[in-house]
Amino acid sequence: MQPQAQNPYPALEWSHDGRWISVGNTLVAAADGATCRPFRTATFNVGWRPHSPSLIASTRSGRVLIAKPGQAPRPLLPRAFSTNGSSAFDPSGRRIVAEGPKASLSVFDLATGKRTRIWRSPAPFGRIGPPSGERWSPDGRWILFQTDTDHSASIAADGLPLWAIPARGGHPIQIEQELLGADDFLRPCGNASDRIVISAGFDRYVSAHKRLDLAGPPSWKPRTISNDPRHSWYAAACSPDGSLVAATVTTNREEGRFDTAERSIWLLASDGSRRRLLVGKSKDGISDEQPRWSREGSWILFLQHPARPFPRAALYLISIKTGQRRGPYAQINGGLGYYGYHDWDGAAAWYQPSSSVRAVRASAAVSAGVAKNPVVAHLDGVPVRAPTVGAAWGVCPAHALRLKAAGLVAAKRAAMLALPTVAREVRPPLNLRGARADVVRHTRRNGDVLPRRHSCRGTPFLRSALVHVVLPAERAAPDLRGNLTLCVAPTPNEWVIWDEV
Questions:
Q1: For residue 359, how far is the Cα from the chain centroid?
Q2: Which of 422, 418, 437, 372 is nearest to 399 (CA)?
């Protein structure tokens, strides 16, 4: 059973190509905010299939459906099976694990339709209980699951056993005695590793008796790396290379009144040899929690909020090397976190596309956030924002990042992607036939209208680019319409297009 979190919004999840965001049963197009509902009936455990625009959902009538945006859903599995959303897919997206009749687990090969029953509870209504929370190990060779001991909600609230079983079937191995069922209490540890990091320990309060364990095949013997009973350690996340672990830390006690325990974020070596405080200060009345790593491992995204019920949290980035902080990027209403738990990952989903650009290019889909300018395109999965009617011509964004040579090339691409939207907002609309960018360079002190914000100037002016676009079809009035100049800047969230004139 997952710790209860009264978040005021449905959980968010990005599609793997960054084009769609699932908001409960609704899909939202990242480019323009268009919506659709692929499942016409009430569903739960909605999740995206890896490497695919498809998503699945379970129905209360006992079916698992699969659909794509704009296409009608169809049954994926036989009746009487259910899945755990995105976690049910193996890393390749070709196999899926599902709970089935008589408290069993089965693996389906989606290409062939072959079903392999890998486990059945020997005591579904007794000391073992039925399976729950099934997911794949990072290497795709094992199934991790919990068992709902005595089928009791009260027992489950304090943590359930965690098991591992080979995906082809075999003897299950117990990893932990008690683990809360939240997704962020069990995570992969490193991109190229088969290990997992576990926030284990008895007690329904997240602030009590939690420790950090690492485990991996074939023995799955857990190794504790926190080794500090004075504190409760949870919601841990490993760096992409698996060498560091970031975790939320509180004083080890049942906090009593929900959300009143101050939280901080610590970094630990995954071998347990060292640790240090990254964010937080004792007795400041502030909670810093839910660390998530940037793709290249140099930044951590986290939430900060007052240590009180119904908090309003802010999203920040922090450099693990310098401690430099950026943000806030958005505000999120947390609701009431029962026993101190919030599903922050469901309230702020971080999309990080594969990219050669070193700067953090993350898009936080925030349930309470409002974009200053609409998203008009995507560059390698990263949103490109440009002003439209009612937004004037925009300004330089705060927190602009430094642009190197490769960044100038990307700035040109971002400007050209935004060009159709810009052209439509000019009256009369611009004719883009034959349009090309003939000048792409950093803004500079001489001859340019400088960005108003110093964040886009830098020293020297390397935080924004000037892109000059030639429009051959607009030769009738080249002074006014043939020489379009746009400013472009990258931020940790997105590319932003504007015109200072």
A1: 17
A2: 372
- As given in the structure block, the two tokens for residue 358 are 């070193």
Query: Please, where are the H alpha helices in 21-179?
Result: 153-157
Nearest to 246, CA basis, from 285, 209, 275, 282: 275
> What tokens were used for 66?
């699969």
- pLDDT for residue 361 is more than 50: no
Query: Residues 54-80, buried b or exposed e (16+ Cβ, 10 A)?
Result: bbbbbbeeebbbbbbbeeebeebbbee
Q: Please measure the distance between the N-terminal and C-terminal CA atoms of the chain and give it in whole angstroms.
A: 57
Report which of 52, 57, 50 is spatially closest to residue 75, judged by C-alpha positions. 57
The amino acid sitting at 265 is I
> What are 495's two structure tokens?
């590319």
3-state SS, residue 324: coil
Comparing CA positions, the residue from 123, 4, 16 lying closest to residue 353 is 16
- Each residue's pLDDT tens digit, 337-353: 889 998 888 888 888 86
pTM for this model (two decimals): 0.70
Placement of tokens 């000059």 in the chain: 468
55-66 average pLDDT score = 91
pLDDT, position 491: 82
Contact criterion met (CB below 8 Å) for 73 and 66: yes
Return d(Cα 117, Cα 97) in angstroms, integer: 9
Q: What is the pLDDT of residue 475?
A: 54
Cβ neighbours, 10 Å, residue 257: 10
Which residues make Cβ contacts (< 8 Å) with residue 78, sequence separation at least 6?
115
DSSP 89: B
* DSSP assignment of 65-87: EEE-TTS--EE-S-TT-B--GGG
User: In 3D, which of 416, 460, 457, 420 has the Cα closest to residue 439?
Assistant: 416
**Closest by CA position to 83, among listed 57, 111, 114:** 57
Joined together, the tokens standing for residue 124 give 């579904």
3-state secondary structure 162-179: EEEEECCCCCCEEEEEEE
CB 106 within 8 Å of CB 81 = yes
Among residues 335, 329, 262, the alpha carbon closest in space to that of 301 is found at 329
HSE at residue 266, side-chain half, CA atoms within 13 A, is: 22
The pLDDT confidence band at residue 9, using thresholds 50, 70 and 90, is low
